[in-house]
Amino acid sequence: MYHPKNDIIMKKILLILLLFGLYNNCNVFAQKKATSKSQPLVTKSMAEKISNECLYGSGYGLTVFYSANSELLSYSDILAGKGREILYSLEKYPKYSENFIYGVYERCGYSGLKNIGFTSTELERAKKVIKKRKESKP
To answer: What is this structure's pTM?
Structure first.
């Protein structure tokens, strides 16, 4: 049976559904925007080159890795083998790679990164890491 009150109720329900739909669309957009910005600067290839240099290289790699990540790795962690565990799966830990890149840059400049085997595109990414790190330091 038709009643004017039913129209008002239906309009309110439609308005609530419309507002809920708009809210969800805005929320999804905000989530997509946030995730796209948090992509790591260090690629898997870069992480593999760093890892290989530190684990199998005959140079300074492991020392630079430990000193650059001294805030994240304690001496007891290093003795327990946590540093090497991280190096075996370094692509999962971009912060360690970024610290290493900055550590090599501080000691040897860009030539140190070239010696590791970074390509020109990887050097550009490394420059972004270095710039980000310099801006975050007081």
So the answer is: 0.70
